[in-house]
Design a protein that fits this description.
This protein is of the alpha/beta class. Helices cover 42% and strands 18% of the residues. The chain has 11 helices and 10 strands. The strands form 2 sheets. It has an 8-stranded parallel β-barrel, surrounded by 7 helices. Strands 4-5 form a two-stranded antiparallel sheet. The longest helix has 18 residues. The protein is globular.
Length: 256
């Protein structure tokens, strides 16, 4: 029963093996003051996702309660289980559980998302929490998406290609159904990331791209490298013409 539910949920997220998600967990990690000129109401962001042709949306439980009745039946609701704020010391690279798998299930989630900062001094705490979340996901047939982000002093920055390749592989190894990580900025290096991650890999939107052309070029190159799709945030809903831009991304994705 649970395995059947999981397969059905995965099909909502990965349609024909590809996925286009809108990420909207930013108001917790960065706060509304980071986007002073943008309407961050969850229903508005959900409407962009639906009208732009996304497969689903990723948000926290409070926002999910508001938007869930506005979403089409074939649209995936993905609830973020972990969080941190920008009010803490930035060296405290940890996200803690703020929502349970059971709460997400009660809200009608099709999947849950969990962040791990690989290489952080707090890595072991996130691994411990992850193991408990994974156990409950298996029991409920709930897909688990791992946001695998490097934060190691051994690498020059979080976009180091080798660090990203390592982080993505760890996500597959520890049991994530889908891995989300950064784009390396280079088609050749990202090909290695995809090759070494044996579960579907989605690309995070990352920092706001300088131009629309640069953003779409990265989208195209990530797909050539083998990415299965994207989880895009501010590069969509923080821009003018967000619905049309999301449709452009979907059109590019449909070619692969």
């Amino acid at each position: 029963m649970f395995n059947k539910n999981k397969k059905e949920r995965m099909k909502k997220i990965l349609k024909d093996g590809k996925s286009l998600l809108i990420a909207f967990d930013h108001a917790v990690e960065h706060g509304p003051i980071a986007y002073p000129n943008i309407d961050l109401h969850p229903v508005k962001i959900a409407k962009i996702a639906v009208d732009g042709g996304a497969n689903g949306i990723i948000l926290h439980s409070g926002a999910a309660r508001i938007v869930k009745d506005y979403l089409p039946k074939d649209f995936a609701l993905i609830i973020k289980l972990t969080a941190r704020t920008s009010l803490v010391n930035d060296k405290s690279h940890i996200q803690s559980l703020v929502t349970t798998v059971d709460e997400a299930a009660l809200l009608g989630a099709d999947a849950v998302a969990f962040t791990i900062y690989l290489g952080s001094d707090m890595e072991h705490h996130m691994f411990e929490q992850f193991s408990q979340v994974k156990k409950r996901c298996i029991e409920l047939g709930m897909p688990l998406i791992g946001f695998m982000y490097p934060r190691s002093p051994k690498y020059k920055n979080k976009y180091d290609a080798k660090a990203i390749e390592y982080a993505a592989r760890v996500g597959a190894e520890i049991g994530c159904d889908i891995v989300k990580t950064y784009y390396t900025g280079n088609r050749e290096t990202f090909t290695k990331v995809v090759k070494n991650c044996f579960v579907p890999l989605l690309v995070a939107g990352g920092p706001e791209a300088k131009t629309k052309e640069n953003f779409l070029n990265n989208i195209n190159n990530a797909l050539i490298a083998g990415a299965r799709g994207f989880a895009l945030g501010r590069n969509i809903w923080a821009r003018e013409g967000s619905v049309e831009l999301l449709k452009e991304v979907k059109s590019i994705l449909s070619r692969y």
